[in-house]
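pasting for ref
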Amino acid sequence: MTCLAIDTTGENCTAALRLSDGSERVLSDRIGRGHAERLAPMVEALLAETLTTPTSLSRIGVTVGPGSFAGTRVGAAFARGLALACNADCIGISNLAVLARQANSKGPLAVLHDAKRGEVIMQLWHNGVARAPERLGVGDLPARIADLGGPECAVTGSGAHLLPPGFIDLGVSTIDPAMMLAMTGELDARSNPPSPFYARPPDAKLPGGVTPA
């Protein structure tokens, strides 16, 4: 099975490929912005370098956030379009789930995404089972973590630095392409659609004050 995994939710534009023989190749650039212009040429170069035809792709995984609003939309739209053209399964991968697996915590774990504006998206994991993500104010985090995870709950993610001293920060905040590829191959495509997960609704409005879909 040949798998392609894409991440455009942060400052990096990343494409990773796992071939049917198990070998992997990753291209990643720290670009900040401009994912829409960089992603397609990067994927094209990755396929050409490995002599892989697009139609040989079995699965295409894409991180769906939370992360950059524009970057998340770019990645999800590109993955959907490519999967349709290649007749491949398209899998949406939660950034919070990737970081939780990378952290490999043996006890309760709170994965925290810094949503800015004094807010954090938190998802609590325990024994491999995740609660639904929550959006919280930074000031409410310590009590919520203690309530759900207890005193031994570790934390990780881009929002971990917002907590007061005393928490066990596992220091995982960057998506690992190898983990993306692993989850692309493992996750059920029907249960994990490539639907963006935004930290908050878009600020932009259509004429008449309508929020875009």
